[in-house]
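My current task is to audit a protein record that another person submitted. I need someone to confirm that the token line plausibly describes how this chain folds. Take the sequence as given and treat only the tokens as open to question. This is what I was given:
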Amino acid sequence: MNELAEVAKNWLQAMNEHSVDKMNSLCWEDVVGEEIADPPPAKGREKIANSYRELFIAFPDCKCEVLNIFSGQDQALAEVRWTGTNKNDFRGTPATGRFVDVKIAYIFKIDGKKIRKITEYYDGATVAKQMGL
């Protein structure tokens, strides 16, 4: 596995550990997190960290399984299967107790062994349906 893919894999492992500090350590201070299904982009490590803290509270058992990682030039693409149970409020929506199972594609723009940008693609309608919304 090359260096770019390794950075992406380490970030995803830190996410599985629910370790916001580890996730942050792999990113530049001015990293941008763009979640296509839920704009606008989060700018800066702390904003991204706060969104993941909220996710880990809402889905305390969430995890991802890496299905594929590809890399080239200054980017890595990771395809994951993300699962979790919605046990607490999330983004203004009360907990539903429902299990979510969705594929997500993450594109990591990497500079100097650290992440500059994370773009996340998933089907928001599928997530809402699985949550019972």
Q: What stands out?
A: The chain has a mean pLDDT of 96. Residues 47 and 76 are 22 Å apart (CA to CA). Residues 3-130 form a domain with the Nuclear Transport Factor 2; Chain: A, fold (CATH 3.10.450.50). The helical segments are 3-16, 20-25, 45-58, 124-130.
